[in-house]
Structures are given as structure tokens and as C-alpha cells.
Request: fold
Amino acid sequence: MDQMNQFNQSDFQQQYRPMTLGDWLITLLIQAIPLVGFIMLFVWAFGGDTHPSKKTWAQASLLFALIMLVLVIIFFAAMWSFFMSFFSGYNMNYSS
Reply:
């Protein structure tokens, strides 16, 4: 069993190539395009033929975006609640 594990590790090390600086620059450039970048995050995160580093980075980016979206919704809900409670005491009827 240990021999099989060593074979798989050495096979993985021979096939795995780290992403180059140019690969990352192109990835970040594509990701910076507003709608295309968001769609490409899903393609890279869940696509089959994606470099493992890029796949993990895309999954982490999507998770981070989801967490930020939830926090923004909570923040705006809290602000809305604060302003509604602040202005609820005012009479907005201007007719005399």
C-alpha cells in the first residue's frame, strides 16, 4: 500500500506544474472584467479542466463574495431598521 502511495505522489509531482506569473496575471485580468469575471469564477471553480490552484482560488473567491454579500445585506437591513425607528416618531402628514 505504501508503494502505491509513493507512486501516486511521484506521478502527481511529475504532472503538476505551478501556475506561472503570466498565468496569474491573465487570470486576474479576466476576473477584473465585470460580468465576464464573475461567470469565469464559476467556470474555474466548478469546471473539470482547470488548474488545481486556480480552481481552489476561484472557489475561495466565490465563498468570500458570498460572505461579503451576506454581511452587506445584514448591514443595510440594520441601517434600514435604524432609520425607520428614528423617523417613525415624525408625522409626515404636511396637510394643515
